[in-house]
Design goal:
Rossmann fold; alpha/beta; binds adenosine-5'-triphosphate; 247 residues; four-stranded antiparallel beta sheet
């Protein structure tokens, strides 16, 4: 269970200040997949980075399973599995070694690491590259390795930044099935995307974000009803206020 309240974050540079996140708040429940949907630059990655303790908000509050992120970030990290936007896998290690390394950082014993690695390699269809060094991996192979690594400690809450970016149809379908399994096990799953169809295919609830603000929250049907539009892409364009933007 994840709760975000009134988050703010800005970045100061030579060209001025960018208000990346302006009052974002939403709840992501256990046993549900929550999609953070927004166009490029909407503030999705910044919001997720604050959630997974990589950066502190200037204002606002985050709770994971009732634990305040500002008060006990280490306890929150143990409860989170994170696929960051920069996948950041170690290229000198094999996929299996990347996963095991994170398992050791989480204090898991070798037998548990082996068992978890085998289970995830099977679910994510990693068997043919599990023992190869990750240097030269395709984007899909890197993403799968990073997902398996993120979940090695069996976290209750799973956060994925644009998980299907660059994946082919079959890999995307496999990943969707995997995320549904995590949801059906009662976990809290949050992922970001800029593609309405992607989010609609998978999410129990969608949080539409644009220009650093939440524009709407609801199921795909609720969002359709809000706008009176049948086509989900039109719904997204309307809710995100993109109508004036170039096609
Ligand atoms: N470290 C940073 N320094 C300066 N500006 C930043 C930084 N991180 C994000 N921004 C700016 O904040 C805004 C929101 O960026 P963010 O990466 O959160 O968007 P996003 O919704 O994830 O976009 P995308 O779909 O393109 O990944 C953008 O204008 C971006 O340029």
């Amino acid at each position: 269970m994840i709760l975000l309240e009134n988050l703010h974050k800005s970045f100061r540079g030579k060209a001025g200040t960018v208000h990346a996140v302006k009052g974002v708040g939403f709840e992501a429940r256990d046993g549900e997949i929550t999609g953070l949907l927004g166009p490029n630059g909407a503030g999705k990655t910044t919001t997720l980075r604050m959630l997974y303790t990589l950066m502190a908000p200037e204002q606002g509050r985050i709770e994971v399973d009732g634990i305040d992120v500002a008060r006990d970030p280490a306890a929150v990290r143990r409860r989170l599995g994170v696929l960051p936007d920069a996948r950041g896998i170690y290229k000198r290690l094999t996929a299996r070694e990347n996963i095991a390394y994170f398992g050791r950082l989480h204090g898991l014993d070798e037998a548990t690491i082996r068992a978890r690695t085998e289970a995830m390699a099977k679910t994510l269809a990693m068997d043919d590259f599990l023992d190869r060094r990750t240097e030269g991996f395709s984007q899909g192979q890197r993403t799968k390795t990073a997902i398996a690594r993120a979940l090695v400690h069996d976290p209750r809450n799973v956060i994925l930044d644009e998980p299907t970016n660059g994946l082919d149809v079959m890999t995307t379908r496999g990943l969707r099935g995997f995320l549904r399994e995590l949801r059906d096990e009662g976990r809290c799953v949050v992922f970001s995307s800029h593609i309405m169809q992607e989010v609609a295919a998978l999410c129990d609830r969608i949080v539409v974000i644009a220009h650093g603000e939440v524009r709407a929250i609801g199921t795909p049907d609720e969002l359709r009803a809000m706008t009176g539009l049948p086509d989900l892409e039109d719904v997204f364009v309307r809710l995100a206020g993109l109508e004036g933007d170039a096609a």
